[in-house]
Amino acid sequence: MHVVRTATELSQVQVMIPGPVHFVPTMGALHAGHASLISTAVKNRDADRDQGSVLVSIFVNKTQFNDKKDFETYPRNEAADLKLCEMAGADIVFIPDDDQMYPDEYLGTEVCVPGISKEWEGRFRPGHFNGVATVVMKLFHLSLPDYAYFGEKDWQQCRVIERMVADLNVPVYLVFCPTVREQDGLAISSRNQLLPADERPKAPMLFARISQCADDIRKGTDPRAAELEAADRLHADGFTSVDYVAAVDGSSLAPIEGAKPGARVLAAASIGGVRLIDNVPI
Q1: How far is CA 162 from CA 37, 116, 140, 173, 199, in A?
Q2: Which CATH class is domain 2-177?
Q3: Is the pTM of this model over 0.90?
């Protein structure tokens, strides 16, 4: 496995491994969800007659954090990340620093994906999706991937990147992979390790409540009523704040008036000082 830290080194190594590039962009603090993405990329690489490479990037992107404290406390463990990448079968790991991604001559050009990035996470994390879209586009230009892999836990992020790729004619095939969960249902996330021990047992109720919300809507409950009920139950479960529970169209993310194919329930709520997001199909 090659570990590179500059764009020049990345280009040099990629020349040595011809064929399709299967790219898994991450912010580190890797876990079973990331391992699943890498493993999927490895399987697809191995199934391709041209083989190619599996590239993982690790970069904690400061421009997508609207809360400086959140950026500073984001978990970082490079040694553990590299071990996971190697065990999962990655060929190249790209670990740029801020100077590589945002050099002195960078004057703040941003990629903005309007509409789909406005509500939900966009409302509660101003500027977040501009930061995500910008860094993903920069990583695409640096790595020139044929395939890029993203987890569906960040459903809105997937839709933002999908729209960016379509609008800007980016020549990459996007692969969206199912959310990986703990045995108790909690969506695996790098931030889970920040949960206080006494609050951790309550965290899976986010998945339980939005699953019940989706089930209620399937059975004919008005989506707005189901959303309010889920939020009330989360407060009763010990969540200190509920930013949103939203029944939406799975593509446009617009609120729905009843169950429909492809619809999702999205949610963000905080417990023990940690903000969790999740989503389920309706």
Answers
A1: 17, 10, 13, 10, 35
A2: alpha beta
A3: yes
